[in-house]
Design a protein that fits this description.
The chain has 215 residues and is mainly alpha-helical. Among the domains are: 58 residues; 59 residues, DNA polymerase, domain 1, CATH 1.10.150. The chain is built from 8 helices and 5 strands; from the N terminus they run αααββαβαβαααβ. A hairpin with a 5-residue loop joins strand 1 and strand 2. The radius of gyration is 48 Å and the shape is elongated. This is Competence protein ComEA.
């Protein structure tokens, strides 16, 4: 009888130990058992920000070796070299090409024929501008001689002419030109002959001016 009682106590004690251990396991949270793994963020950042070295040559302002941020394209390298020159041929450059360390970005130059074709419109425009500036030809004349000329290849419009254009007319100086402008502002010119209403312009002077006047 005593042996049976002892076995019962041992069994009860074992059951109590098992129950306590199970409760301890159930009470613990995943956060208590999770392992913390450190991440080397500094190393990743260093790799991402590393630049690439490229050599830029050809028709650029400052050819040479440049360090460009990783992931950049050819256009960034050309910009770092001061951009393309006037003789560059941009059609021969792939500006979207992704840069790699140690590569060369070359900007080809235009051929001699292409350069002539490119500068021809510029030269033509400059010549036209110069011709326009020389359209009005003024000739200094003495009042008593009555000689003079208006603008070459054209006439002076009385209702729109400037003082400089008016002084190009035969026998018209600064004072007479100012009087013409004042009369025009007050009355306007309905006909070429109306210019004789301006003080200082008679029939003799008008006859010299008439071939160069228009409305």
């Amino acid at each position: 009888m005593m042996e049976r009682g002892l076995r019962g106590k041992v069994a009860a004690l074992g059951a109590a130990v098992v129950l306590c251990a199970g409760g301890s396991l159930l009470g613990s949270s995943p956060q208590d058992t999770a392992a913390v793994v450190p991440v080397p963020a500094a190393g990743i950042s260093a790799v991402q920000t590393r630049g690439v070295k490229v050599y830029v040559s050809g028709a650029v302002a400052k050819p040479g070796l440049y360090e460009i941020p990783a992931g950049s394209r050819a256009t960034a390298a050309i910009a770092a070299a001061g951009g393309m020159t006037l003789e560059a041929n941009p059609d021969k450059v792939n500006l979207a090409k992704l840069l790699k360390d140690g590569m060369q970005v070359n900007v080809p130059r235009l051929s001699a024929r292409q350069l002539r074709e490119q500068t021809a419109p510029v030269n033509a425009g400059a010549a036209a501008e110069a011709a326009g500036a020389n359209t009005l030809v003024s000739v200094k004349t003495a009042a008593e001689s009555g000689r003079g000329t208006a603008k070459a290849g054209g006439k002076v419009h009385l209702n729109t002419a400037t003082a400089a254009e008016l002084t190009a007319l035969p026998g018209v100086g600064d004072i007479t030109a100012q009087r013409i402008l004042e009369y025009r502002a007050a009355h306007g010119f309905a006909s070429i002959e109306d210019v004789m209403k301006v003080k200082g312009i008679g029939k003799a002077k008008f006859s010299k001016m008439q071939p160069y006047l228009e409305l």
